[in-house]
Amino acid sequence: MSIEGAGPIELSTQRLAPGHAGACHELDQLCRPQGWDLQQWSQELEGSGRNVLGVFHGCALVAVGSSWLILDELQILLLLVHPGHRRIGLASMVLNELMQDGRERGASGASLEVAVGNTAALGLYGSLGFRCTGRRRGYYRDGQDALIQWRQLDDTTG
Ligand SMILES: CC(C)(COP(=O)(O)OP(=O)(O)OC[C@H]1O[C@@H](n2cnc3c(N)ncnc32)[C@H](O)[C@@H]1OP(=O)(O)O)[C@@H](O)C(=O)NCCC(=O)NCCS
């Protein structure tokens, strides 16, 4: 995949390691007002059972997605895309790769939580077949409710 207008630099995807904590933290600061600090990123990248995928544009980390398999349920923990690289399909690509990896490891469904006001993420998850199955009131630090989203993985829709 290449970014339109970005010249010959190609995008590449790789599984991230603890050494990527700094780059993840920098990207997070650009994407979320209250993201994870460096220590939380180090823990995420060291955690056993985590699958953290990164997309690089040349040497720059431009997207990250993280998932965790619990029994047969794939939990999507976060997706971040650099503000300068949005709406070109990066989050969809990362989420599809995380779900494919989950299927291969035996997941039958995927779940995640998203703030009720996060229209971009709700649009993304809806476009990939996630449906709302519940709500956690006042779940986020800013008081927003979380919507619980779910989709089957053992079907042929994605
Ligand atoms: C949410 C986020 C990950 C989407 O990343 P992205 O790479 O721009 O998403 P994609 O290009 O794969 O979009 C796929 C579809 O999602 C929907 N979508 C994405 N952004 C949207 C927006 N701002 N408004 C409405 N729908 C949107 C659209 O249906 C889109 O398809 P289209 O572009 O053909 O219309 C990105 O906006 C982001 O990093 N936001 C801040 C962090 C965040 O909230 N992460 C999610 C919770 S952890």
Explain briefly what this protein structure is.
With 158 residues, the chain is of the alpha+beta class. The protein is built from 4 helices and 7 strands; from the N terminus they run βααβββαβαββ.
How would you describe the overall organization of this protein?
It contains four helices and seven strands, in the order βααβββαβαββ. It has a single domain (11-152), classed as Aminopeptidase, CATH 3.40.630.30. Helix content is 28%, strand content 34%. With 158 residues, the protein is of the alpha+beta class. Strand 4 (73-81), helix 3 and strand 5 form a beta-alpha-beta unit. The structure holds coenzyme A. The site of coenzyme A has 21 residues, from strand 4, helix 3 and helix 4.
Strand-helix topology:
Blueprint: E1 11-15, H1 21-31, H2 38-46, E2 50-57, E3 60-70, E4 73-81, H3 90-104, E5 109-115, H4 119-127, E6 131-136, E7 146-152
Parallel strand pairs: 4-5
Antiparallel strand pairs: 1-2, 2-3, 3-4, 5-7, 6-7
Coenzyme A binds next to strand 4, helix 3 and helix 4.
Q: CATH-wise, what's the superfamily?
A: Gcn5-related N-acetyltransferase (GNAT)
Rg, Å, rounded: 15 Å
User: What composes the largest sheet?
Assistant: 7 strands, mixed
Widest β-sheet, arrangement of strands? 1-2-3-4-5-7-6
Mean pLDDT: 93
Distance between the termini: 19 Å
- Order of secondary-structure elements: EHHEEEHEHEE
Report the structural category.
alpha+beta
Q: Could you say what the CATH architecture is? A: 3-Layer(aba) Sandwich
